[in-house]
Amino acid sequence: MPNPLFQLLRYVRPHRKYAALTLGFGILGFALSFAYPWIIGTVVDVVTSPLLTFAQKKAKLVTMTELAALAAILNAAVVYGRGHFNVHLGHGIVADIRRELFEHLQKLSLLFFAKERTGSILSRFLHDVHEATSLLYTGLIVVGLDVVQLIIAIVLLASISVKLTIACLVLFPIYAGVFALLNPRVRVASERMHGKLTRISGNVAEQLAGQALVKTYTAETREAARFERDVRDHHGLVIAQSRAGHLVASSGEILVHFGTTMVIGYGGYLALAGTMTAGTLTRFIGYMLIMFGPVRRFAELNIVYQTSISAMRRVFRVLEIKPTIVDPPNPCREPPPSGEVRFEDVRFRYTEDSDEAHARLDEDRPDDGDNQPYVQRSLVLDGVTMHANPGEVVAVVGSSGAGKTTLLSLLPRLFDVTEGRVLVDGVDVRDYSLETLRSAIAIVQQDPFVFTGSVRENIAYGRPNASNEEIEWAARAAHAHDFIMELDDGYDTRLGERGANLSGGQRQRISIARALLKDPRILILDEATSSLDVASEAVVQKALEELMRSRTCFVIAHRLSTIRNANRIVVLEGGRVVESGTHAQLLARAGAYARLVRMQSVVT
Ligand SMILES: Nc1ncnc2c1ncn2[C@@H]1O[C@H](COP(=O)(O)OP(=O)(O)O)[C@@H](O)[C@H]1O
Ligand SMILES: [Mg+2]
């Protein structure tokens, strides 16, 4: 895996202006840091010089004071400029990465989302990107300048006295050794820390979503114990990282102070012996402190850097997951004119050998190559052939787990077939642009999704600029208008998360209105009424009939009345079509369908 710092560079481009400003102020500050030792050294030499007259010394002193005042003002500008523009640059990049991550996540298929937990994804999105910022703020430019500062300081030191320079640097190799030894540990611990936090977020999000279950099974104590374990593990990882990190920091400290000690002793001796003036020694010590600045900063900030780099690596790893369901190179953008659908010998299994299938967001071990054993699952669909002419209603029946939902999710390409083809008006669904294909299809599910927002926004989700008249028309057709008008604010009533303040039947009618407004050529009803009570089912059924008019429909339903009138009934068993025909034909065959009908309620 390439160094994430290099990957980061391409994000700097759009923010070059702020990068240049930060760099400009950085260089100014950097030059200024050399001004003080020079001024102080000069003042010491001027004051102690036996050659200059008092008047000359006074004049020089005034000049030096003026220079020092100028440096003070410039320094103030540097603190503002370098700090502020660096945030502009750093946060600009963070915002870009978040945007890219969001867009990328939306391109990933359901294979990915079925496997990853919402909390874990959120953790990458918020925590990891945030952690990466510390490097962006302090790192990028400051680190670069620090290296330059170190080199210039060493050159200046050596130009004053090579021996003294060597004396203050003898401990460098020890520091380098400690760093090489401990830093990999800091890095691994950082990686595992983030991984653990991702897993904790996943657990907590799941636990919160399942509060009703937790409460009714009085599992609070167990959940608390699990959380406690997670937190303890995370704490252990933070401590491990800190131990290694602070050992690196303290060895840096030894380097700095022993170096200073050497210079005080040996430099003092040189000055005593008259080999060096007091002013030169002062200047040397000044430059030396400048040189130790970056060393110290680095030793101290190393933990932050390593935490940041590993967070960044995790973010880039998500960005590198290749989406499996994408537009073809030259997609067909003609909307299907009539909505004829054909499944040809379709085979499908859930796991594919893809990036999406391999990714594990809450894995807390750093990547060490291809370490995940890959399980090939069995075929869920094993050679399904069926078709629907434009405007026909095709019912798909079969026991639970037969593959009905899976089969129909291949139509809008929520998944892609493993073998075989799905054609809409003679064109393979994989040859349409995803937008064209999906605009032509609506799905009404058993448990429709309603998001936080107004009733109006929820209905208009597929056509955000629909007029109020159109929205109301859809709601009336979906038999939803009356109950909506009874809500506190009518169409402007805000719905809670997942439509918490609506009944199942009401949510379903909102989702039917949404589908009506989208006006798709092809409609999929996946057990749209099975979670409703008899009274709401009757209303929703009426709404559905409105929706089904003049479209190609696939109906998975347990209500026999809908199925009875279907143009064709397909019976699915273990991923295969075992029978197909009209209600009357299938009853006459006295086969699987007849058996399901006899059992009535079992037709799901
Ligand atoms: N996301 C998934 N990942 C792996 N297997 C799945 C997934 N969804 C469904 N399955 C499996 O596929 C089979 C068919 O499921 P499904 O199409 O939902 O059946 P039905 O809708 O007929 O009840 C089942 O054995 C189920 O376990
Ligand atoms: Mg199903």
Automatic annotation (TrEMBL):
The keyword Transferase does not apply. It is found in: Cell membrane. Its main location: membrane. PROSITE patterns: ABC_TM1F, ABC_TRANSPORTER_1, ABC_TRANSPORTER_2. GO terms for cellular component: plasma membrane. Residues 20-307 form the ABC transmembrane type-1 domain. GO terms for molecular function: ABC-type oligopeptide transporter activity; ATP binding; ATP hydrolysis activity. This is Lipid A export ATP-binding/permease protein MsbA. It comes from Labilithrix luteola.
